[in-house]
Amino acid sequence: MVKSMLNVTYTWDKESISANGSKQVNLLIEWGYGAIRKRKGNLIPKAAGCDLQLQFIPENGVSLLKAEGVRLGFKRSENGDSMFVHCGDVRRGKYRQAILTFSIPAHSSGRHTIGMMEWSWRKPSQEKRTLIRTDQLYIHFTHHLGLLSIPSNPKVEKYIKMNETSPIVKKALRMYEKGEYKQGAFILTRQADELLIRAARSDDKDYLQEAELLLAIRNKWSGTFVVFTAYSSKVFFNKAISLENVRFTENDTLR
């Protein structure tokens, strides 16, 4: 096994999966180089490696379905026997996260390998790619109902839920732009409500802050888009009103 200064941790959402297999198993991966450091001013952390790439070589029947994270690229090899995740550049003291979702077939009870993780990168100013780390990936299979009923890992569950915010906001924005204000507001409200419930159950302030952000976006857009549409219609039907004379104040009140 190849090890390096690239630090990687793997956390499954479930400690055990059914020996009958599972069509969706989530794995949180966190990676970085060196100790976490706070940025000073506008200084950008020094690059340790470029174009970090994760290659997953699965055991028979295992498949990597998708990868979700910041600027991740995902593709399969030409013969389909491995999957690649492009993780971008690595900077000293900076750590990143991603969720990999697998489909895993049935297996006998016990701890078994589901594949190999191979990490490679290019040194800054070099073109040659270097293998820097390899890890065997294991998971526990069981028929024990007690083990299968254990709640999902809260850290993995939190990352998955928080990662939903960006696509939901984009979807809501498209609805507001099409004039579907109620639908857009409903999507934002529903997600905020789910986060508020999680915040109450876990006493996690991150959920609360995310919910407050979504509600603030909903209130802002509901005011801005509705008011703008109303006055745009008024401008269209009243030629005496010039678009140049229509402007918003900070309170979204037209003057």
Task: Briefly say what this structure is.
With 255 residues, the chain is α+β, with helices and mostly antiparallel strands.
Care to describe what's here?
There is one protein chain. The chain is α+β, with helices and mostly antiparallel strands. The protein is 32% helix and 36% strand. It has helices at 145-148, 154-162, 165-177, 181-202, 205-237, and strands at 6-12, 16-18, 22-33, 47-58, 63-69, 73-76, 83-91, 95-104, 110-122, 129-142. The chain has a six-stranded mixed sheet. A four-stranded antiparallel sheet has the order 1-3-8-5, with helices on one face. The longest helix is centred in the C-terminal third of the chain and has 33 residues, at 205-237. The N and C termini lie far apart (68 Å).
Can you lay out the helices and strands and say which pair or pack?
Layout: E1 6-12, E2 16-18, E3 22-33, E4 47-58, E5 63-69, E6 73-76, E7 83-91, E8 95-104, E9 110-122, E10 129-142, H1 145-148, H2 154-162, H3 165-177, H4 181-202, H5 205-237
Parallel strand pairs: 2-10
Antiparallel strand pairs: 1-3, 3-8, 4-7, 4-9, 5-8, 6-7, 9-10
Helix pairs in contact: 3-4, 3-5, 4-5
